[in-house]
Amino acid sequence: MSFAAGLQALDLLGVFFFAVSGSLLAARKGFDVIGSLLLACLVGMGGGVVRDVILAVGIPSAFNDPVYLIPPVLAAALVYVLFNSVQRYTSLLTLFDAAGLALFCISGTLKAITYGANPVTAVLLGVTTAVGGGVLRDITANEVPSLFNAREIYALPAFVGAALTALVWNLGWFTIVTGPAIAALVFVFRVVAWRRHWCVPLAVRGWHRPGA
Amino acid sequence: MSFAAGLQALDLLGVFFFAVSGSLLAARKGFDVIGSLLLACLVGMGGGVVRDVILAVGIPSAFNDPVYLIPPVLAAALVYVLFNSVQRYTSLLTLFDAAGLALFCISGTLKAITYGANPVTAVLLGVTTAVGGGVLRDITANEVPSLFNAREIYALPAFVGAALTALVWNLGWFTIVTGPAIAALVFVFRVVAWRRHWCVPLAVRGWHRPGA
Amino acid sequence: MSFAAGLQALDLLGVFFFAVSGSLLAARKGFDVIGSLLLACLVGMGGGVVRDVILAVGIPSAFNDPVYLIPPVLAAALVYVLFNSVQRYTSLLTLFDAAGLALFCISGTLKAITYGANPVTAVLLGVTTAVGGGVLRDITANEVPSLFNAREIYALPAFVGAALTALVWNLGWFTIVTGPAIAALVFVFRVVAWRRHWCVPLAVRGWHRPGA
Protein backbone atom coordinates (compact mmCIF):
# COMPACT_ATOMS: atom_id res chain seq x y z
CA MET A 1 0.00 0.00 0.00
CA SER A 2 1.42 3.36 -1.01
CA PHE A 3 1.81 6.18 1.50
CA ALA A 4 -1.04 8.18 -0.10
CA ALA A 5 -3.36 5.15 0.07
CA GLY A 6 -2.39 4.53 3.68
CA LEU A 7 -3.04 8.15 4.59
CA GLN A 8 -6.46 8.02 2.94
CA ALA A 9 -7.34 4.76 4.74
CA LEU A 10 -6.40 6.43 8.05
CA ASP A 11 -8.51 9.46 7.12
CA LEU A 12 -11.54 7.34 6.14
CA LEU A 13 -11.36 5.36 9.37
CA GLY A 14 -11.29 8.63 11.33
CA VAL A 15 -14.29 9.88 9.33
CA PHE A 16 -16.15 6.70 10.27
CA PHE A 17 -15.47 7.04 14.02
CA PHE A 18 -16.51 10.70 14.10
CA ALA A 19 -19.55 9.94 11.91
CA VAL A 20 -20.73 7.34 14.45
CA SER A 21 -20.39 9.94 17.21
CA GLY A 22 -22.54 12.29 15.10
CA SER A 23 -25.24 9.66 14.48
CA LEU A 24 -25.25 8.75 18.19
CA LEU A 25 -25.86 12.37 19.12
CA ALA A 26 -28.57 12.58 16.43
CA ALA A 27 -30.23 9.51 17.93
CA ARG A 28 -30.25 10.98 21.42
CA LYS A 29 -31.51 14.36 20.20
CA GLY A 30 -34.44 12.66 18.44
CA PHE A 31 -33.33 13.58 14.90
CA ASP A 32 -34.66 11.55 11.96
CA VAL A 33 -32.51 9.28 9.74
CA ILE A 34 -31.73 12.11 7.32
CA GLY A 35 -30.62 14.36 10.19
CA SER A 36 -28.53 11.44 11.46
CA LEU A 37 -26.84 11.06 8.06
CA LEU A 38 -26.28 14.84 7.77
CA LEU A 39 -24.78 15.10 11.27
CA ALA A 40 -22.62 12.05 10.51
CA CYS A 41 -21.36 13.87 7.37
CA LEU A 42 -20.82 17.17 9.23
CA VAL A 43 -18.89 15.62 12.12
CA GLY A 44 -17.01 13.07 10.04
CA MET A 45 -16.03 15.41 7.21
CA GLY A 46 -15.99 18.79 9.03
CA GLY A 47 -12.46 18.65 10.41
CA GLY A 48 -11.00 17.45 7.11
CA VAL A 49 -12.83 20.07 5.04
CA VAL A 50 -11.57 22.86 7.32
CA ARG A 51 -8.05 21.39 7.04
CA ASP A 52 -8.20 21.23 3.23
CA VAL A 53 -9.64 24.76 2.94
CA ILE A 54 -6.86 26.16 5.17
CA LEU A 55 -4.21 24.18 3.26
CA ALA A 56 -5.69 25.69 0.06
CA VAL A 57 -5.40 22.39 -1.83
CA GLY A 58 -8.39 22.95 -4.14
CA ILE A 59 -11.70 21.12 -3.65
CA PRO A 60 -11.51 19.28 -0.28
CA SER A 61 -11.20 15.48 -0.51
CA ALA A 62 -14.51 14.94 1.26
CA PHE A 63 -16.30 16.75 -1.58
CA ASN A 64 -14.10 15.62 -4.45
CA ASP A 65 -13.89 11.90 -3.76
CA PRO A 66 -17.22 10.01 -3.45
CA VAL A 67 -15.54 7.33 -1.29
CA TYR A 68 -15.80 9.76 1.64
CA LEU A 69 -19.59 9.32 1.55
CA ILE A 70 -19.33 5.65 2.53
CA PRO A 71 -18.33 6.06 6.21
CA PRO A 72 -21.19 8.45 7.11
CA VAL A 73 -23.76 6.22 5.34
CA LEU A 74 -22.38 3.18 7.18
CA ALA A 75 -22.39 5.07 10.50
CA ALA A 76 -26.00 6.27 10.19
CA ALA A 77 -27.12 2.77 9.11
CA LEU A 78 -25.27 1.08 11.98
CA VAL A 79 -26.75 3.43 14.58
CA TYR A 80 -30.21 2.96 13.03
CA VAL A 81 -30.01 -0.83 13.15
CA LEU A 82 -27.92 -1.56 16.24
CA PHE A 83 -28.55 1.21 18.71
CA ASN A 84 -31.61 0.53 20.83
CA SER A 85 -30.86 2.21 24.11
CA VAL A 86 -29.66 5.59 25.25
CA GLN A 87 -28.26 4.16 28.46
CA ARG A 88 -24.67 3.89 27.31
CA TYR A 89 -24.94 6.83 24.96
CA THR A 90 -22.34 9.09 26.63
CA SER A 91 -19.74 6.33 26.98
CA LEU A 92 -20.13 5.14 23.40
CA LEU A 93 -20.03 8.65 21.96
CA THR A 94 -16.89 9.48 23.95
CA LEU A 95 -15.14 6.28 22.82
CA PHE A 96 -15.90 6.80 19.12
CA ASP A 97 -15.00 10.48 19.41
CA ALA A 98 -11.67 9.55 21.06
CA ALA A 99 -10.90 7.10 18.23
CA GLY A 100 -11.61 9.79 15.63
CA LEU A 101 -9.46 12.27 17.56
CA ALA A 102 -6.56 9.77 17.66
CA LEU A 103 -6.64 9.16 13.90
CA PHE A 104 -7.32 12.74 12.74
CA CYS A 105 -4.49 14.38 14.71
CA ILE A 106 -2.14 12.04 12.80
CA SER A 107 -3.75 12.23 9.34
CA GLY A 108 -4.17 16.02 9.61
CA THR A 109 -0.52 16.54 10.53
CA LEU A 110 0.73 14.17 7.79
CA LYS A 111 -1.44 15.75 5.08
CA ALA A 112 -0.13 19.21 5.98
CA ILE A 113 3.46 17.92 5.88
CA THR A 114 2.96 16.28 2.48
CA TYR A 115 1.69 19.62 1.15
CA GLY A 116 4.90 21.30 2.28
CA ALA A 117 3.70 23.01 5.47
CA ASN A 118 6.31 23.79 8.13
CA PRO A 119 6.20 21.64 11.33
CA VAL A 120 4.40 24.29 13.43
CA THR A 121 1.71 24.73 10.77
CA ALA A 122 1.42 20.95 10.47
CA VAL A 123 0.87 20.53 14.22
CA LEU A 124 -1.71 23.36 14.28
CA LEU A 125 -3.56 21.79 11.36
CA GLY A 126 -3.40 18.35 12.97
CA VAL A 127 -5.05 19.72 16.11
CA THR A 128 -7.60 21.72 14.07
CA THR A 129 -8.51 18.64 12.01
CA ALA A 130 -8.88 16.52 15.15
CA VAL A 131 -11.05 18.91 17.14
CA GLY A 132 -12.92 20.57 14.22
CA GLY A 133 -15.63 17.95 13.67
CA GLY A 134 -16.44 17.69 17.36
CA VAL A 135 -16.72 21.46 17.76
CA LEU A 136 -19.11 21.65 14.77
CA ARG A 137 -21.12 18.76 16.30
CA ASP A 138 -21.47 20.50 19.66
CA ILE A 139 -22.25 23.95 18.22
CA THR A 140 -24.93 22.47 15.94
CA ALA A 141 -26.43 20.62 18.90
CA ASN A 142 -26.51 23.96 20.74
CA GLU A 143 -24.03 22.99 23.46
CA VAL A 144 -20.77 24.56 24.65
CA PRO A 145 -18.12 22.42 22.87
CA SER A 146 -16.44 19.86 25.15
CA LEU A 147 -13.21 21.33 23.76
CA PHE A 148 -13.75 24.21 26.21
CA ASN A 149 -15.22 22.19 29.06
CA ALA A 150 -13.03 22.61 32.15
CA ARG A 151 -13.83 19.05 33.21
CA GLU A 152 -12.55 17.50 29.96
CA ILE A 153 -9.03 16.90 28.66
CA TYR A 154 -9.74 17.05 24.93
CA ALA A 155 -7.30 19.26 23.02
CA LEU A 156 -4.20 18.13 24.93
CA PRO A 157 -4.18 14.50 23.63
CA ALA A 158 -4.71 15.84 20.07
CA PHE A 159 -1.80 18.26 20.53
CA VAL A 160 0.45 15.50 21.91
CA GLY A 161 -0.48 13.24 18.98
CA ALA A 162 0.09 15.94 16.36
CA ALA A 163 3.42 17.02 17.89
CA LEU A 164 4.64 13.41 18.18
CA THR A 165 3.62 12.74 14.57
CA ALA A 166 5.56 15.78 13.30
CA LEU A 167 8.59 14.86 15.44
CA VAL A 168 8.63 11.17 14.50
CA TRP A 169 8.10 12.06 10.82
CA ASN A 170 10.99 14.53 10.78
CA LEU A 171 13.26 11.96 12.43
CA GLY A 172 12.31 9.51 9.67
CA TRP A 173 10.83 7.09 12.20
CA PHE A 174 7.19 7.14 11.05
CA THR A 175 6.35 3.52 10.23
CA ILE A 176 3.48 1.03 10.35
CA VAL A 177 4.52 0.48 14.00
CA THR A 178 5.08 4.01 15.33
CA GLY A 179 1.96 5.45 13.64
CA PRO A 180 -0.53 3.11 15.36
CA ALA A 181 1.46 3.49 18.60
CA ILE A 182 0.86 7.27 18.55
CA ALA A 183 -2.84 6.72 17.80
CA ALA A 184 -3.12 4.25 20.70
CA LEU A 185 -1.37 6.69 23.04
CA VAL A 186 -3.76 9.55 22.09
CA PHE A 187 -6.82 7.29 22.47
CA VAL A 188 -5.72 5.95 25.87
CA PHE A 189 -4.73 9.43 27.10
CA ARG A 190 -8.14 10.87 26.15
CA VAL A 191 -10.18 7.95 27.56
CA VAL A 192 -8.22 7.60 30.82
CA ALA A 193 -8.38 11.37 31.41
CA TRP A 194 -12.15 11.18 30.88
CA ARG A 195 -12.68 8.15 33.15
CA ARG A 196 -10.39 9.40 35.93
CA HIS A 197 -11.70 13.00 35.71
CA TRP A 198 -8.23 14.43 35.20
CA CYS A 199 -8.23 18.19 34.82
CA VAL A 200 -5.90 21.14 34.33
CA PRO A 201 -5.94 24.48 36.24
CA LEU A 202 -8.72 26.95 35.49
CA ALA A 203 -8.23 30.02 33.29
CA VAL A 204 -7.69 32.25 36.32
CA ARG A 205 -5.24 31.62 39.16
CA GLY A 206 -6.76 31.09 42.58
CA TRP A 207 -10.27 30.71 41.21
CA HIS A 208 -12.39 28.00 42.78
CA ARG A 209 -13.61 25.38 40.34
CA PRO A 210 -17.40 25.72 39.97
CA GLY A 211 -19.04 22.97 41.98
CA ALA A 212 -15.76 22.00 43.64
CA MET B 1 -29.05 36.18 -22.02
CA SER B 2 -25.89 34.13 -21.78
CA PHE B 3 -25.70 31.05 -19.55
CA ALA B 4 -23.38 32.83 -17.09
CA ALA B 5 -25.78 35.78 -16.81
CA GLY B 6 -28.73 33.44 -16.34
CA LEU B 7 -26.88 31.52 -13.63
CA GLN B 8 -26.07 34.78 -11.84
CA ALA B 9 -29.68 35.98 -12.08
CA LEU B 10 -30.80 32.68 -10.52
CA ASP B 11 -28.18 33.07 -7.80
CA LEU B 12 -29.19 36.69 -7.02
CA LEU B 13 -32.86 35.74 -6.79
CA GLY B 14 -31.96 32.95 -4.35
CA VAL B 15 -29.89 35.44 -2.32
CA PHE B 16 -32.93 37.73 -2.14
CA PHE B 17 -35.31 35.02 -0.89
CA PHE B 18 -32.88 33.83 1.79
CA ALA B 19 -32.09 37.44 2.74
CA VAL B 20 -35.80 38.08 3.37
CA SER B 21 -35.91 35.01 5.61
CA GLY B 22 -32.94 36.44 7.53
CA SER B 23 -34.55 39.86 7.96
CA LEU B 24 -37.83 38.25 9.05
CA LEU B 25 -35.99 36.30 11.75
CA ALA B 26 -34.15 39.51 12.76
CA ALA B 27 -37.51 41.28 13.06
CA ARG B 28 -38.94 38.59 15.30
CA LYS B 29 -35.82 38.41 17.46
CA GLY B 30 -36.01 42.19 18.04
CA PHE B 31 -32.75 43.00 16.21
CA ASP B 32 -32.19 46.55 14.90
CA VAL B 33 -32.01 47.50 11.18
CA ILE B 34 -28.26 46.94 11.04
CA GLY B 35 -28.65 43.48 12.58
CA SER B 36 -31.41 42.85 10.04
CA LEU B 37 -29.13 43.83 7.16
CA LEU B 38 -26.25 41.73 8.54
CA LEU B 39 -28.44 38.66 9.03
CA ALA B 40 -29.85 39.18 5.52
CA CYS B 41 -26.27 39.21 4.20
CA LEU B 42 -25.22 36.16 6.27
CA VAL B 43 -28.22 34.04 5.24
CA GLY B 44 -28.37 35.25 1.65
CA MET B 45 -24.65 35.01 0.93
CA GLY B 46 -23.58 32.28 3.40
CA GLY B 47 -24.39 29.25 1.26
CA GLY B 48 -22.77 30.73 -1.84
CA VAL B 49 -19.61 31.79 0.01
CA VAL B 50 -19.19 28.29 1.45
CA ARG B 51 -19.75 26.85 -2.05
CA ASP B 52 -17.16 29.16 -3.64
CA VAL B 53 -14.60 28.53 -0.87
CA ILE B 54 -15.00 24.75 -1.30
CA LEU B 55 -14.82 25.04 -5.10
CA ALA B 56 -11.60 27.07 -4.58
CA VAL B 57 -12.55 29.58 -7.29
CA GLY B 58 -10.75 32.57 -5.74
CA ILE B 59 -12.62 35.39 -3.99
CA PRO B 60 -16.29 34.29 -3.65
CA SER B 61 -18.77 36.12 -5.93
CA ALA B 62 -20.65 37.59 -2.97
CA PHE B 63 -17.50 39.46 -1.92
CA ASN B 64 -16.09 40.17 -5.35
CA ASP B 65 -19.15 41.53 -7.13
CA PRO B 66 -20.96 44.49 -5.47
CA VAL B 67 -24.24 43.51 -7.19
CA TYR B 68 -24.61 40.82 -4.50
CA LEU B 69 -25.16 43.59 -1.94
CA ILE B 70 -28.41 44.70 -3.59
CA PRO B 71 -30.66 41.76 -2.58
CA PRO B 72 -29.85 41.94 1.18
CA VAL B 73 -30.34 45.74 1.21
CA LEU B 74 -33.68 45.33 -0.60
CA ALA B 75 -34.71 42.53 1.77
CA ALA B 76 -33.92 44.48 4.96
CA ALA B 77 -35.70 47.57 3.55
CA LEU B 78 -38.79 45.58 2.52
CA VAL B 79 -39.11 43.93 5.92
CA TYR B 80 -38.61 47.31 7.62
CA VAL B 81 -41.32 49.01 5.57
CA LEU B 82 -43.89 46.26 4.94
CA PHE B 83 -43.74 43.92 7.88
CA ASN B 84 -45.94 45.07 10.74
CA SER B 85 -47.08 41.90 12.41
CA VAL B 86 -45.45 38.76 13.75
CA GLN B 87 -48.60 36.73 13.30
CA ARG B 88 -47.67 35.19 9.99
CA TYR B 89 -43.96 35.21 10.71
CA THR B 90 -43.35 31.44 10.62
CA SER B 91 -45.34 30.90 7.41
CA LEU B 92 -43.65 33.76 5.57
CA LEU B 93 -40.16 32.75 6.70
CA THR B 94 -40.77 29.15 5.62
CA LEU B 95 -42.06 30.22 2.18
CA PHE B 96 -39.13 32.54 1.46
CA ASP B 97 -36.70 29.95 2.80
CA ALA B 98 -38.26 27.29 0.52
CA ALA B 99 -37.90 29.59 -2.50
CA GLY B 100 -34.23 30.17 -1.69
CA LEU B 101 -33.72 26.44 -1.21
CA ALA B 102 -35.30 25.71 -4.61
CA LEU B 103 -33.06 28.17 -6.47
CA PHE B 104 -29.79 27.49 -4.62
CA CYS B 105 -29.84 23.70 -5.05
CA ILE B 106 -29.93 24.39 -8.82
CA SER B 107 -27.45 27.30 -8.98
CA GLY B 108 -25.03 25.53 -6.61
CA THR B 109 -25.05 22.35 -8.68
CA LEU B 110 -24.66 24.23 -11.98
CA LYS B 111 -21.79 26.41 -10.70
CA ALA B 112 -19.92 23.30 -9.52
CA ILE B 113 -20.47 21.63 -12.93
CA THR B 114 -19.24 24.68 -14.84
CA TYR B 115 -16.05 24.59 -12.74
CA GLY B 116 -15.43 21.00 -13.80
CA ALA B 117 -16.60 19.16 -10.68
CA ASN B 118 -17.76 15.56 -11.10
CA PRO B 119 -21.53 14.91 -10.75
CA VAL B 120 -21.32 13.59 -7.17
CA THR B 121 -19.33 16.64 -6.03
CA ALA B 122 -21.78 18.90 -7.88
CA VAL B 123 -24.78 17.38 -6.11
CA LEU B 124 -23.03 17.61 -2.70
CA LEU B 125 -22.19 21.25 -3.36
CA GLY B 126 -25.73 21.97 -4.55
CA VAL B 127 -27.13 20.62 -1.29
CA THR B 128 -24.47 22.45 0.76
CA THR B 129 -25.24 25.74 -1.00
CA ALA B 130 -28.96 25.28 -0.49
CA VAL B 131 -28.88 24.40 3.21
CA GLY B 132 -25.78 26.45 4.21
CA GLY B 133 -27.42 29.86 4.68
CA GLY B 134 -30.31 28.46 6.71
CA VAL B 135 -27.96 26.53 9.01
CA LEU B 136 -25.90 29.69 9.64
CA ARG B 137 -29.13 31.60 10.32
CA ASP B 138 -30.35 29.09 12.88
CA ILE B 139 -26.96 28.67 14.61
CA THR B 140 -26.58 32.46 14.90
CA ALA B 141 -30.10 32.70 16.34
CA ASN B 142 -29.08 30.06 18.89
CA GLU B 143 -31.52 27.39 17.67
CA VAL B 144 -31.02 23.79 16.54
CA PRO B 145 -31.05 24.12 12.72
CA SER B 146 -34.33 23.02 11.10
CA LEU B 147 -32.07 20.94 8.86
CA PHE B 148 -31.84 18.48 11.79
CA ASN B 149 -35.40 18.86 13.05
CA ALA B 150 -37.12 15.48 12.93
CA ARG B 151 -40.42 17.18 12.16
CA GLU B 152 -39.13 18.92 9.03
CA ILE B 153 -38.34 17.62 5.54
CA TYR B 154 -35.63 20.09 4.57
CA ALA B 155 -32.54 18.47 3.07
CA LEU B 156 -34.46 15.92 0.99
CA PRO B 157 -36.05 18.44 -1.45
CA ALA B 158 -32.63 20.11 -1.86
CA PHE B 159 -31.05 16.73 -2.61
CA VAL B 160 -33.79 15.83 -5.13
CA GLY B 161 -33.36 19.22 -6.83
CA ALA B 162 -29.56 18.96 -6.99
CA ALA B 163 -29.65 15.37 -8.27
CA LEU B 164 -32.29 16.21 -10.91
CA THR B 165 -30.26 19.25 -12.01
CA ALA B 166 -27.09 17.15 -12.44
CA LEU B 167 -29.02 14.42 -14.27
CA VAL B 168 -30.93 16.76 -16.60
CA TRP B 169 -27.72 18.72 -17.30
CA ASN B 170 -25.76 15.60 -18.21
CA LEU B 171 -28.57 14.47 -20.52
CA GLY B 172 -28.37 17.88 -22.25
CA TRP B 173 -31.98 18.62 -21.31
CA PHE B 174 -31.38 21.64 -19.06
CA THR B 175 -33.41 24.47 -20.61
CA ILE B 176 -35.44 27.54 -19.69
CA VAL B 177 -38.33 25.10 -19.20
CA THR B 178 -36.79 22.23 -17.26
CA GLY B 179 -34.82 24.50 -14.90
CA PRO B 180 -37.85 26.34 -13.50
CA ALA B 181 -39.75 23.03 -13.42
CA ILE B 182 -37.13 21.57 -11.07
CA ALA B 183 -37.26 24.72 -8.92
CA ALA B 184 -41.06 24.51 -8.73
CA LEU B 185 -40.89 20.82 -7.80
CA VAL B 186 -38.41 21.49 -4.95
CA PHE B 187 -40.48 24.42 -3.67
CA VAL B 188 -43.75 22.47 -3.72
CA PHE B 189 -42.11 19.39 -2.17
CA ARG B 190 -40.71 21.45 0.72
CA VAL B 191 -43.89 23.47 1.33
CA VAL B 192 -46.31 20.54 1.09
CA ALA B 193 -44.10 18.41 3.38
CA TRP B 194 -44.15 21.29 5.89
CA ARG B 195 -47.92 21.88 5.68
CA ARG B 196 -48.85 18.20 5.80
CA HIS B 197 -46.27 17.39 8.53
CA TRP B 198 -44.65 14.67 6.46
CA CYS B 199 -41.75 13.02 8.23
CA VAL B 200 -39.15 10.28 7.77
CA PRO B 201 -38.19 7.58 10.32
CA LEU B 202 -36.14 8.60 13.34
CA ALA B 203 -32.40 7.96 13.61
CA VAL B 204 -32.96 4.81 15.65
CA ARG B 205 -35.21 1.91 14.71
CA GLY B 206 -38.16 1.28 17.00
CA TRP B 207 -37.69 4.54 18.87
CA HIS B 208 -40.84 6.45 19.75
CA ARG B 209 -41.01 9.95 18.28
CA PRO B 210 -40.76 12.47 21.12
CA GLY B 211 -44.21 13.83 21.83
CA ALA B 212 -45.85 11.24 19.57
CA MET C 1 9.64 49.67 8.95
CA SER C 2 8.27 48.49 5.61
CA PHE C 3 4.56 48.64 4.84
CA ALA C 4 4.23 44.83 5.04
CA ALA C 5 5.93 44.79 8.45
CA GLY C 6 3.71 47.64 9.67
CA LEU C 7 0.59 45.83 8.46
CA GLN C 8 1.66 42.67 10.27
CA ALA C 9 2.40 44.60 13.50
CA LEU C 10 -1.11 46.10 13.30
CA ASP C 11 -2.56 42.64 12.69
CA LEU C 12 -0.66 41.09 15.63
CA LEU C 13 -1.76 43.85 17.99
CA GLY C 14 -5.38 43.26 16.94
CA VAL C 15 -4.93 39.51 17.51
CA PHE C 16 -3.67 40.28 21.02
CA PHE C 17 -6.64 42.50 21.94
CA PHE C 18 -9.20 39.98 20.66
CA ALA C 19 -7.27 37.12 22.32
CA VAL C 20 -7.54 38.90 25.69
CA SER C 21 -11.31 39.24 25.15
CA GLY C 22 -11.45 35.49 24.49
CA SER C 23 -9.46 34.61 27.61
CA LEU C 24 -11.62 36.95 29.71
CA LEU C 25 -14.75 35.19 28.49
CA ALA C 26 -13.09 31.81 29.17
CA ALA C 27 -12.30 32.97 32.72
CA ARG C 28 -15.87 33.99 33.38
CA LYS C 29 -17.29 30.79 31.85
CA GLY C 30 -15.08 28.72 34.17
CA PHE C 31 -12.96 27.20 31.36
CA ASP C 32 -9.51 25.80 32.20
CA VAL C 33 -6.21 27.31 30.98
CA ILE C 34 -6.21 25.18 27.82
CA GLY C 35 -9.75 26.30 27.00
CA SER C 36 -8.61 29.86 27.68
CA LEU C 37 -5.70 29.49 25.24
CA LEU C 38 -7.94 27.86 22.61
CA LEU C 39 -10.61 30.56 22.87
CA ALA C 40 -7.86 33.21 22.72
CA CYS C 41 -6.63 31.57 19.48
CA LEU C 42 -10.15 31.24 18.02
CA VAL C 43 -11.15 34.85 18.75
CA GLY C 44 -7.76 36.38 17.95
CA MET C 45 -7.14 34.44 14.75
CA GLY C 46 -10.72 33.72 13.60
CA GLY C 47 -11.38 36.96 11.75
CA GLY C 48 -8.02 36.88 9.98
CA VAL C 49 -8.34 33.24 8.95
CA VAL C 50 -11.79 33.90 7.45
CA ARG C 51 -10.35 36.95 5.65
CA ASP C 52 -7.41 34.98 4.22
CA VAL C 53 -9.63 32.06 3.14
CA ILE C 54 -12.00 34.44 1.33
CA LEU C 55 -9.08 36.32 -0.25
CA ALA C 56 -7.80 32.89 -1.41
CA VAL C 57 -4.18 33.78 -0.57
CA GLY C 58 -3.06 30.24 0.28
CA ILE C 59 -2.45 29.07 3.87
CA PRO C 60 -3.74 31.85 6.20
CA SER C 61 -1.04 33.84 8.01
CA ALA C 62 -2.26 32.70 11.42
CA PHE C 63 -1.47 29.10 10.47
CA ASN C 64 1.58 29.73 8.32
CA ASP C 65 3.56 32.10 10.55
CA PRO C 66 4.31 30.86 14.11
CA VAL C 67 4.61 34.48 15.33
CA TYR C 68 0.78 34.57 15.38
CA LEU C 69 0.87 32.11 18.29
CA ILE C 70 2.58 34.63 20.59
CA PRO C 71 -0.38 37.01 21.20
CA PRO C 72 -2.85 34.26 22.29
CA VAL C 73 -0.24 32.68 24.60
CA LEU C 74 0.51 36.10 26.12
CA ALA C 75 -3.21 36.85 26.47
CA ALA C 76 -4.04 33.58 28.22
CA ALA C 77 -1.02 33.99 30.53
CA LEU C 78 -1.91 37.61 31.39
CA VAL C 79 -5.50 36.72 32.22
CA TYR C 80 -4.31 33.74 34.29
CA VAL C 81 -1.86 35.85 36.31
CA LEU C 82 -3.52 39.24 36.56
CA PHE C 83 -7.25 38.69 36.51
CA ASN C 84 -8.62 37.99 39.97
CA SER C 85 -12.10 39.38 39.91
CA VAL C 86 -15.13 39.09 37.67
CA GLN C 87 -16.48 42.42 38.79
CA ARG C 88 -15.18 44.46 35.89
CA TYR C 89 -15.37 41.57 33.45
CA THR C 90 -17.91 43.09 31.03
CA SER C 91 -16.18 46.47 30.88
CA LEU C 92 -12.73 44.99 30.29
CA LEU C 93 -13.98 42.56 27.66
CA THR C 94 -15.78 45.36 25.80
CA LEU C 95 -12.70 47.61 25.86
CA PHE C 96 -10.34 44.93 24.54
CA ASP C 97 -12.91 43.86 21.97
CA ALA C 98 -13.28 47.49 20.81
CA ALA C 99 -9.51 47.81 20.45
CA GLY C 100 -9.38 44.64 18.35
CA LEU C 101 -12.31 45.89 16.25
CA ALA C 102 -10.51 49.23 15.62
CA LEU C 103 -7.30 47.57 14.41
CA PHE C 104 -8.84 44.70 12.41
CA CYS C 105 -11.19 46.86 10.31
CA ILE C 106 -8.05 48.70 9.13
CA SER C 107 -5.72 45.71 8.70
CA GLY C 108 -8.45 43.66 7.00
CA THR C 109 -9.21 46.42 4.50
CA LEU C 110 -5.51 47.08 3.77
CA LYS C 111 -4.68 43.40 3.30
CA ALA C 112 -7.55 43.05 0.80
CA ILE C 113 -6.35 46.15 -1.08
CA THR C 114 -2.76 44.89 -1.25
CA TYR C 115 -4.07 41.65 -2.79
CA GLY C 116 -5.78 43.63 -5.54
CA ALA C 117 -9.38 43.56 -4.29
CA ASN C 118 -11.68 46.37 -5.44
CA PRO C 119 -12.66 48.98 -2.80
CA VAL C 120 -16.12 47.48 -2.11
CA THR C 121 -14.64 44.02 -1.57
CA ALA C 122 -11.93 45.55 0.63
CA VAL C 123 -14.48 47.28 2.85
CA LEU C 124 -16.60 44.10 3.12
CA LEU C 125 -13.52 42.09 4.07
CA GLY C 126 -12.44 44.74 6.57
CA VAL C 127 -15.81 44.51 8.31
CA THR C 128 -15.79 40.68 8.13
CA THR C 129 -12.28 40.53 9.64
CA ALA C 130 -13.26 42.94 12.41
CA VAL C 131 -16.50 41.23 13.46
CA GLY C 132 -15.55 37.62 12.63
CA GLY C 133 -13.61 36.74 15.78
CA GLY C 134 -16.25 38.20 18.08
CA VAL C 135 -19.05 36.31 16.33
CA LEU C 136 -17.13 33.02 16.65
CA ARG C 137 -16.51 33.84 20.35
CA ASP C 138 -20.19 34.45 21.05
CA ILE C 139 -21.47 31.44 19.05
CA THR C 140 -18.98 29.15 20.82
CA ALA C 141 -20.09 30.54 24.18
CA ASN C 142 -23.68 29.75 23.15
CA GLU C 143 -24.89 33.37 23.09
CA VAL C 144 -26.57 35.47 20.40
CA PRO C 145 -23.62 37.47 18.95
CA SER C 146 -23.51 41.10 20.17
CA LEU C 147 -23.21 41.90 16.46
CA PHE C 148 -26.97 41.32 16.26
CA ASN C 149 -27.89 42.76 19.66
CA ALA C 150 -30.30 45.65 19.17
CA ARG C 151 -28.80 47.41 22.19
CA GLU C 152 -25.26 47.43 20.78
CA ILE C 153 -23.64 49.53 18.05
CA TYR C 154 -21.00 47.06 16.88
CA ALA C 155 -20.85 46.68 13.11
CA LEU C 156 -21.30 50.39 12.36
CA PRO C 157 -17.93 51.55 13.81
CA ALA C 158 -16.20 48.70 11.94
CA PHE C 159 -17.91 49.76 8.71
CA VAL C 160 -16.95 53.42 9.23
CA GLY C 161 -13.34 52.41 9.92
CA ALA C 162 -13.13 50.13 6.88
CA ALA C 163 -14.74 52.70 4.57
CA LEU C 164 -12.48 55.52 5.84
CA THR C 165 -9.42 53.28 5.41
CA ALA C 166 -10.34 52.47 1.79
CA LEU C 167 -11.10 56.14 1.07
CA VAL C 168 -7.96 57.55 2.70
CA TRP C 169 -5.84 54.85 1.02
CA ASN C 170 -7.22 55.62 -2.43
CA LEU C 171 -6.59 59.34 -1.89
CA GLY C 172 -2.98 58.48 -1.02
CA TRP C 173 -3.40 59.96 2.45
CA PHE C 174 -2.83 56.80 4.50
CA THR C 175 0.11 57.60 6.80
CA ILE C 176 1.45 56.91 10.28
CA VAL C 177 -0.83 59.76 11.41
CA THR C 178 -4.12 59.08 9.59
CA GLY C 179 -4.02 55.30 10.27
CA PRO C 180 -3.96 55.61 14.08
CA ALA C 181 -6.49 58.47 13.85
CA ILE C 182 -8.98 56.13 12.13
CA ALA C 183 -8.32 53.44 14.75
CA ALA C 184 -8.88 55.95 17.57
CA LEU C 185 -12.13 57.14 15.95
CA VAL C 186 -13.48 53.57 15.65
CA PHE C 187 -12.49 52.74 19.24
CA VAL C 188 -14.06 55.91 20.66
CA PHE C 189 -17.23 55.48 18.53
CA ARG C 190 -17.70 51.90 19.76
CA VAL C 191 -16.98 52.65 23.42
CA VAL C 192 -19.04 55.86 23.63
CA ALA C 193 -21.98 54.16 21.86
CA TRP C 194 -21.74 51.36 24.42
CA ARG C 195 -21.48 53.65 27.47
CA ARG C 196 -24.22 56.03 26.32
CA HIS C 197 -26.53 53.20 25.15
CA TRP C 198 -26.83 54.65 21.65
CA CYS C 199 -29.04 52.59 19.39
CA VAL C 200 -30.44 52.50 15.87
CA PRO C 201 -34.07 51.79 14.83
CA LEU C 202 -35.34 48.22 15.10
CA ALA C 203 -35.69 45.91 12.08
CA VAL C 204 -39.38 46.71 11.72
CA ARG C 205 -40.90 50.21 11.55
CA GLY C 206 -43.20 51.16 14.40
CA TRP C 207 -42.20 48.18 16.52
CA HIS C 208 -41.73 48.85 20.22
CA ARG C 209 -38.27 48.06 21.52
CA PRO C 210 -38.52 45.03 23.83
CA GLY C 211 -38.33 46.21 27.42
CA ALA C 212 -38.69 49.86 26.38
UniProtKB/TrEMBL annotation, chains A, B, C:
Coiled coil: none annotated. The keyword Transmembrane applies. This is TRIC cation channel family protein. It comes from Arthrobacter horti. It is found in: Cell membrane. Pfam families: Gly_transporter. Belongs to the UPF0126 family. It is a multi-pass membrane protein. Keywords: Cell membrane, Membrane, Transmembrane, Transmembrane helix. The lineage of its organism: Bacteria, Bacillati, Actinomycetota, Actinomycetes, Micrococcales. It comes from the Bacteria. Its main location: membrane. Residues 9-82, 95-169 form the Glycine transporter domain. The chain crosses the membrane at residues 6-25, 37-60, 66-83, 90-110, 116-136, 148-167, 173-193.
